[in-house]
């Protein structure tokens, strides 16, 4: 069972991430047939939420109220109950994150052809989400492609911590000077 991180929303009831359940053979399970449609969402840690603009304390394991506005950085646990051929309960957790970097504006400083793979580091990458420049610890570099020859190369990043999502960033590889 897996569940993707959910981006923060200042609206009540915007905390649900739809999990993907698979059996031991990797076959995807179906809600209503293989497990109950009504999933249980609980807090994975103690947290202060907003309810009608007032702070309210919630404890780990407490079921989430649909009126709660959950802050980013909060761990949520979702539990499914088996049905039909499946019995028991299965749970996984996910985070409420500040934002997704998948639609971020990102740039990489121009690179120079070297004859080898060009791999720009975080000091050469700028990522801006919602007008906020991310710190290097807010994302990780997951790979590169087309980064040997002169032309366009790509660097792939993934949000971490309070950020989620993936982004492919194009960068220029220019000719080497004499």
Tally the helices: what do you get? 0
Q: How much helix is in the residues?
A: under 10%
Oligomer: single chain
Per the principal axes of the C-alpha atoms, what is the gross shape? Answer: elongated
Question: What is the arithmetic mean of pLDDT?
Answer: 94
C-alpha Rg (nearest Å): 21 Å
- In the sheet with the most strands, the strands line up as 1-6-5-2
The parts where pLDDT drops under 50 for at least 5 residues are none
State the end-to-end distance.
56 Å
Class from secondary-structure proportions: mainly beta
Number of domains: 2
Order of helices and strands: EEEEEEEEEEEEEEE
Please state roughly what percent of the residues sit in beta strands, choosing from under 5%, 5-15%, 15-25%, 25-35%, 35-45% or over 45%. Answer: 35-45%
